[in-house]
Design brief:
The complex is a heterodimer. Chain A is α+β, with helices and mostly antiparallel strands. Helix content of chain A is 48%, strand content 11%. Chain A starts with 10 loop residues before the first helix and ends with a helix. The N terminus of chain A is likely disordered. Chain B is α/β, with parallel strands linked by helices. Chain B folds into five domains: 112 residues, 3-Layer(aba) Sandwich (Glutaredoxin); 203 residues, NADH-ubiquinone oxidoreductase 51kDa subunit (Rossmann fold, 3-Layer(aba) Sandwich), CATH 3.40.50; 84 residues, Ubiquitin-like (UB roll), CATH 3.10.20; 89 residues, de novo design (two linked rop proteins) (Up-down Bundle), CATH 1.20.1440; 56 residues, Alpha-Beta Plaits (2-Layer Sandwich). Helices cover 40% and strands 14% of the residues of chain B. In chain B, the strands form six sheets. A five-stranded mixed beta sheet of chain B has the order 12-11-15-13-14, sandwiched between helices. Classes of the chains: A alpha+beta, B alpha/beta.
Chain lengths: 167, 617
Amino acid sequence: MPNKIKVNLNSSHFQELDSFIDGLETTEGELISILHKAQSIFGYLPKEVQIHIAKRVNVPVSRVYGVVSFYSYFTMKPKGKYHISVCTGTACFVRGADAVLRDFEEELEIKSGETTKDGLFSLDSLRCVGACALAPVVLINEDVYGKEDAKKVKEIIQKYMKINSEG
Amino acid sequence: MVNRQQLLEKYEAEKNRILNRSGDIALGKKEILVCAGTGCMSSKSLKIIENLEKAIKDNGLDIDVHGTGCFGFCGKGPIVKIMPDDTFYSEVSVDDAEKIVSHLAKNEIYEEKLFINPDTKVRATTTNEIPFYNKQVRLALKNCGFVNAESIDDYIGAKGYQALALALEKSPQEIIDIIKESGIRGRGGGGFSTGLKWEFAFKNKADQKYVVCNADEGDPGAFMDRSILEGDPHSVIEAMAICGYAIGASEGYVYIRAEYPVAYDRLVKAIKAAREEGLLGKNILGSSLDFDILIKFGAGAFVCGEETALISSMEGKRGEPTSKPPFPAEKGFWKKPTNVNNVETLANIPQIILNGADWFSKIGTEKSSGTKVFALAGKINNVGLVEVPMGTTLREVIYDIGGGIVDGKKFKAVQTGGPSGGCLTEEDLDTPIDFDSLIQKGSMMGSGGMIVMDEDDCMVSVAKFFLEFTEEESCGKCTPCRIGTKRLLEVLVEITEGRGNMKHIEELRRLCTVIKETSLCGLGQSAPNPILSTLEKFENEYIEHIKKKKCRAHSCNDLIQYLIDVNECVGCTACKKVCPTSCISGEVKKIHSINQENCIKCGACKSTCRFNAIVVR
Ligand SMILES: Cc1cc2nc3c(=O)[nH]c(=O)nc-3n(C[C@H](O)[C@H](O)[C@H](O)COP(=O)(O)O)c2cc1C
Ligand code: FES
């Protein structure tokens, strides 16, 4: 299961991925699970990782890229230390999610799908986190903000900047 | 467990504990149930469990605390229930845990957290007194909010796996006949007869067949399937094994969204527990059935909910659909006969086997038997998971169960079927909810998303929202859907940004028809529905946007202006201070004004003004 965000392209990560692949009974039909594993190890799926996987699974790189680019869960860009996901499911939409997303974009000066220059925040949207009663919902790593709290965009960002500077 | 006898012995051993919990008998022991579904967990329900356990220990009491699946009343979460008394606490905070326990220690009720009936202002002491639950019938959600999803003993105590044992004593054809006679139709959106589907897969001979549970739940804003998997994963596992026996498959797969970590976790634990008990694996319950279940992850693509795309994705490929026939029942996963069913469809199966086809077919309507679970959300007071018999009217769901519209505003429309469905209005409120009536009214049942909209929602924007979704999610394989949805969206953007003309309406209608008729899969074929239905019911709003450049709901930013009401403005300068673009000018105690050119319509001034002096037009 994809969990904490890590970003590093060092060889021990490649080894971890390799031993996962070696442990599979067959790689046939397992490309998506290999990519899930790779993304949980590396934090994202850069070109190098895709090429590596293609070689290991013995398929053209274009096939790997084709799958990576098809699914929104896979990302080719590293995420920020604090990854912000604004829910834009229907329940959140009718309760003002678009304004919340816009406020984050303005406040962080990035577009959805991007990461701030200092690597601290990244922003994107997702469709329904299953807490529609709290709409609009914002997820920051594993923390959930809902209703009025989700709209306090400035405060939220400041909170994480503070957590970060306090280490 | 090696045989049915042992299963029944285990049931006898666990039964009373579970009956005590349902309030059917009183053993004198109290149990606390806390919702540990994603909704309540987001409001810290796990911390509440921790605090309850601590308080119980501190008070030296003998009370068990269980995290369960969703109680349904998410809007009033986190929810805590005391059994067997059936005391229902809503909106419980982390700090309430101690008080709940100290009251329990004195055999008292903690009044403060009882649910208050908004009509009568009376506090409800038990679940039965809460109007939200009155018209509901829980079949698929029977165990949700009741058993501990992580305890197979709980499930067995609630008659779990007895349907499987019973099924194994019948022939596959007998099982299929029961499912057919029950009249159950697929809850994933299509509404196809489940029994017939099983029969096709059964009759196709092959050395290997597969059972697939579709847990992709693509409708944004719907959470029925995830709640079932979080709250009662064993019912789905049991149903898959029954299906495996009926069609002759020894392998099952659950295709689940990667975005559902809690459901995944509980499913993995449940599968493991079932294997340990011999309820999955070889010679299940001493029969000839070998059946096991594996999990496949989705990776965020709506189209993968469509069964042929789902199968491509299961094979590790791009999730592109293929044309049908061949249907999965002939050539599915690895080209073998495959039966794909939705989570909720499966959750009903054990009940049908246990209680009989006749029992099930008497619930609901003639052509749509049973119940349907809806994820009721949007501008509704009681957001939550609702299960009603088919044939219940929309009005009953929205007003009696849903408690009406938030802030007493006016109901405008309700969207069923998500991005593939349509909206229904005031005049449709007495429509009975079943597969056929909803289609007749220009919407569809879909998988169970039900989003309520009020007077502040612009219907053109709603259509645009859904088209943004389908345009983004179109897999690109067929041209009508790939380019058609893009063009539809472009037209809607023109209209909502004030550049629309009357020809656009004709163009929308024509394009919608072409896309519906020529797209490869259900995604494209249904993508125009939100436009067609809003055009049919709210054409006047489209025309207003085009001709008068007006959005009556004040939601299309390009068609509204923020203005200062000169009669109300006292010159307090509050708005000027919060304006992010500094476009408000004015001296202290003098009337302010807004420079329209720089105004970004963020609404900060309006929410700051204490004198109602900012108006939107
Ligand atoms: C675009 C599209 C998305 C779909 N999404 C889902 C889904 O998320 N969950 C689901 O169970 N069925 C979904 N379906 C329906 C499936 O194709 C299939 O009919 C269903 O899983 C069969 O199970 P049932 O007969 O039990 O309903 C979708 C269909 C289409 C065309
Ligand atoms: S739509 Fe946002 S949580 Fe469901």
